[in-house]
Amino acid sequence: xxxxxxxxxxxxxxxxxxxxxxxxxxxxxxxxxxxxxxxxxxxxxxxxxxxxxxxxxxxxxxxxxxxxxxxxxxxxxxxxxxxxxxxxxxxxxxxxxxxxxxxxxxxxxxxxxxxxxxxxxxxxxxxxxxxxxxxxxxxxxxxxxxxxxxxxxxxxxxxxxxxxxxxxxxxx
Amino acid sequence: xxxxxxxxxxxxxxxxxxxxxxxxxxxxxxxxxxxxxxxxxxxxxxxxxxxxxxxxxxxxxxxxxxxxxxxxxxxxxxxxxxxxxxxxxxxxxxxxxxxxxxxxxxxxxxxxxxxxxxxxxxxxxxxxxxxxxxxxxxxxxxxxxxxxxxxxxxxxxxxxxxxxxxxxxxxxxxxxxxxxxxxxxxxxxxxxxxxxxxxxxxxxxxxxxxxxxxxxxxxxxxxxxxxxxxxxxxxxxxxxxxxxxxxxxxxxxxxxxxxx
Lengths: 172, 260
Fold this sequence. Notes:
Chain A is 54% helix and 12% strand. Chain A has seven helices and four strands; from the N terminus they run αααβαβαββαα. Chain A has helices at residues 6-16, 21-34, 50-62, 80-97, 108-114, 141-145, 147-171, and strands at 68-72, 100-104, 117-121, 128-133. The termini of chain A are far apart. Chain B is an all-alpha fold. Chain B has one domain: MetI-like fold (Orthogonal Bundle), CATH 1.10.3720.10. Helices cover 82% and strands 0% of the residues of chain B. Chain B contains ten helices and no strands. Chain B has helices at residues 3-29, 39-48, 50-84, 86-101, 104-114, 117-142, 146-154, 159-197, 206-215, 219-248. In chain B, helix 3 (50-84) runs antiparallel to helix 8, helix 6 (117-142) runs antiparallel to helix 8 (159-197) and helix 8 (159-197) runs parallel beside helix 9 (206-215). Chain B is flat. The two termini of chain B are 17 Å apart. In chain B, 35% of the residues are buried. At the A-B interface, helix 1 of A face helix 7 and helix 8 of B.
């Protein structure tokens, strides 16, 4: 909501359930500091960068402590540096809040970095074509440059190609 | 010269030039004041007739502001009502348009027959001023960001919450633009109605002073009253622009100063 401060935007879901501002404030500030925006509570969205706005959206989504978080290509429009940073933050958030995140992306690298399970889908009709498990405890900067990560990326790319190819074959 | 100074100096220069020309035309041709008074005479009339003009100004200003307040309340109220119910919108909108397109000068005499004078003048101001508020607010209410509307639905917001938390704030820029137009129109409505009313007595407005001075060939006073009317219009516009700026400066695109 462009007319509302960062605080107001994150307060929205709680406000709609009838919570008053004073009661919600500690929760909002805690969520904001989780996404690294504690100093920007009074800023307005237009004063923020694209990555920061995305953080506000994430804060607004998790402030109600949901069990499932749905994200549809959230970082597609961001530059790579910001994207990596937000990926790291999302992993941290996911560990702290113990929620299931369903993350839609067109980036193989992003999917491998973030996921326990990757579900590859075909387009038109949108069907599940295959599933990969990424079994690694480490999801940090080191993991991103490891051979293990590269291997998983190759597997995921191949699976994706197969899905696209099979689909093209079926259509022909 | 920097931009800001230019923006003040340029129109001021035109004004000064205009006044000098006006004065010269009057002097050189020896035009008598009952045809065209000199600027100096208009100013001195403004000072000597101040008690009369001041009370007239207050009367007109009161009608204008009351008309504007009613127009804002009525315009926003109707827009919200239209937004909530298609049936009401389709039933009433054509009549709002008819009220708007019928020249108020033509309606004023009729209103004066059925209503006491003050109420009739007020009604005229309202009729011309409410439509821009209605039309702009309706536009604003209907152009809410769909993603935000979905977000509100996702969180199970009630109709009332969607209206107060989403639609009204989102419509604020358009609403304020409508109110800015309505400010000027309300003054026009009040003036038209006063001229149509044309009855004498205490508490008559500036427009009535103009008509009366015209009958008495008191041309300097006509000019003085006209000058006051213009200044009133400018003041209302400036006030509403300032309010718009205050309300939007932190978040709306229109209020953001961009570096060239």
